[in-house]
């Protein structure tokens, strides 16, 4: 689920989510429109604030956030 979808589905204001995540409303706005790339710390804060309904991967798909790497051994 995207951050924008989460906000709409749960009727949460950007300012409320920003307060929970410890960032600014303008940062949430930039993220929902795809105009900002979040630091790993902010990704985790926002994911936590949504109870992981929006996952770190959905917020920033270019980072694995601790996912185990496939070492090729079965």
TrEMBL record:
SMART domains: HTH_XRE. Residues 55-74 are annotated as: Disordered. Gene3D superfamilies: lambda repressor-like DNA-binding domains (1.10.260.40). Coiled coil: none annotated. GO terms for molecular function: DNA binding. Pfam families: YdaS_toxin (PF15943). Residues 3-59 form the HTH cro/C1-type domain. This is Helix-turn-helix domain-containing protein. It comes from Salmonella enteritidis.
């Amino acid at each position: 689920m995207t951050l924008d979808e989460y906000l709409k589905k749960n009727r949460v204001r950007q300012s409320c989510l920003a307060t929970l995540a410890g960032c600014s409303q303008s940062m949430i706005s930039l993220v929902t429109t795809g105009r900002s790339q979040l630091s790993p710390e902010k990704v985790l804060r926002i994911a936590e604030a949504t109870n992981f309904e929006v996952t770190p991967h959905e917020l920033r798909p270019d980072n694995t956030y601790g996912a185990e790497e496939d070492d090729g051994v079965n």
